[in-house]
């Protein structure tokens, strides 16, 4: 009772109780999480150097990123386990016309889609991927995936997820430089595994 900021539910983190998350370092946990949330992460000097190095070849890499992304988007848009693909180059996107005008060379390599089956399907899908790396980063040379409902936003209810603009089935991809055929094979296999699990539970 002497430390309610650590022992009581904190609305700023979806009612997290820091003392329950870490019985030995609750104060440090709250200080770090609030700091990162409110001020952002502090970039290390070596990280800044690597970014500067990477920017020098960005114009060479981006066409491959965009080419791979278009192939993956086309595949996902027709997959029966996917209910929606959200990418500005698709005519179904509300900013399609704007993206076409402002981004004539491509709308980038980061996009999201919605997998059928909600949180369980999303978790199984992530666990079944082999080529994609399960990371919250974006813009890497390797392909990345994140399922917010079971990772970054796992404390939020399905209703709160919708309020924030995502759903329990939202998956975000950052498409890298690998072979698009390998990426599509990886996604197809993982989607089929998620679909089989959903069918078995039904």
Question: What is the structure about, briefly put?
Answer:
With 202 residues, the chain is α+β, with helices and mostly antiparallel strands. The chain has helices at 4-7, 18-21, 26-39, 45-55, 58-77, 96-102, 118-128, 158-163, 180-201; strands at 82-86, 110-115, 133-134, 144-146, 170-174.
Short key terms for the protein model shown above:
about 200 residues; 5-stranded mixed sheet
Topology:
Elements: H1 4-7, H2 18-21, H3 26-39, H4 45-55, H5 58-77, E1 82-86, H6 96-102, E2 110-115, H7 118-128, E3 133-134, E4 144-146, H8 158-163, E5 170-174, H9 180-201
Parallel strand pairs: 3-4
Antiparallel strand pairs: 1-2, 2-5, 4-5
Helix pairs in contact: 5-9, 7-9
Which structural class best describes the helix and strand composition? alpha+beta
Low-confidence stretches: none
Number of strands: 5
| Arithmetic mean pLDDT | 92
Radius of gyration: 19 Å
In oligomeric terms, what are we looking at? single chain
| Strand proportion | 5-15%
Largest sheet: 5 strands, mixed
Helix content: 40-55%
- Broad shape: globular
Task: Note the run of SSEs as H and E.
Answer: HHHHHEHEHEEHEH
State the end-to-end distance: 46 Å
In the sheet with the most strands, the strands line up as: 1-2-5-4-3
Number of helices: 9
